[in-house]
């Protein structure tokens, strides 16, 4: 099969980058991807969860996974080191090829122990010695052959030295016979799990994917990178994106957390549906409202999930009261479903996924120009625009210019005269009459003079793109 970097594939061979902390695994990961995907920082132990991405290397597609560092000495009382090492060792079992990364210079006790652990995987192991830019410490690094390696690759992940040679070696050791072209029509529904720290995002991610891909801990800020996982629900494929907890800027003090939070926010651009997890015991907080507002601005489907509902007192109508209170505190999100959930035991998960499926259908719904303008005529007749000298305007016609995110353009005689109240009226009628009850709707007003001469209900007006939205 001829591979094309613009296409998507499935059944990809898995390549895992492994080694002790701070040897440059995440830097090499970003170098091989040709993009900044993993967080890199001089602080050892930045990467905790295995971070996977599809990559196109030396003309071939594969799945590349960056892992947390292998450590002998655990930093007590923090139990995260044990969890990170455990997840790293589990991920090695999934690998078609393991790239062991060592740092140029002396071999540490951690390196030696990790080499011992990897001996059973010798037939699917490559060794790269990093930080050898300009030949630095290259001579000492050849001593690594004494550990039984047939070959070592001297590279600089930061500067790119000899990385091309390593890429060719990686590809030569992989089997691509099972790789198939992915069905673009059957693309997964992408769910982003966002919210404040310690609201249960990683617990929910692990339940959805039936895995331990995300490290779960009571320590806020455990998740740093975006952790991806795939699962099926009622024959629909989903991709779940577990993100770092988003705290107020005033509380973000570490560079690492700054990058984690920004990565979590950027993940909303990649999602179809954003699931905002709220601790049911705390209720909707100001930070939750800011997260929801960001998702709304990006045009994503939004589900507000009251997680840890099992900890709430078993009072009659308690969920109705909590839902009504959330609506009262955040009236602009009246279209977003509010659900109760227990990520720990799975209660409420099916309802959440069924809601996401309905929401995804609405996000990708298209309304043709003719029926849209027929509906517009009814709306204008039921609630005519003002007729005062300063408030008067005429709505000529409308078109849908994109889906996912959903956006409509209304061509009017005087856009500046249209009040927010009238725009809200049009948005509410679109929701009610055209089947967009669960998703945010973008509305843009344009002067009708730009497109006069084009009758409504026919071809798209000039300036209104006929193409579909984000895919």
Characterization of this structure:
The protein is an alpha/beta fold. The protein folds into three domains: 9-181, P-loop containing nucleotide triphosphate hydrolases (Rossmann fold, 3-Layer(aba) Sandwich); 188-363, 3-Layer(aba) Sandwich (Rossmann fold), CATH 3.40.50; 369-451, GMP Synthetase, Chain A, domain 3. 30% of the residues lie in helices and 20% in strands. The protein has twelve helices and 17 strands. A six-stranded mixed beta sheet has the order 3-4-2-5-6-7, with helices on both faces. A six-stranded mixed beta sheet has the order 10-11-9-12-13-14, sandwiched between helices. A three-stranded mixed beta sheet has the order 15-16-17. α8 (286-297) links the parallel β12 and β13 (301-307). The two termini are 25 Å apart. 38% of the residues are buried.
Short note summarizing the structure:
The chain has 471 residues and is an alpha/beta fold.
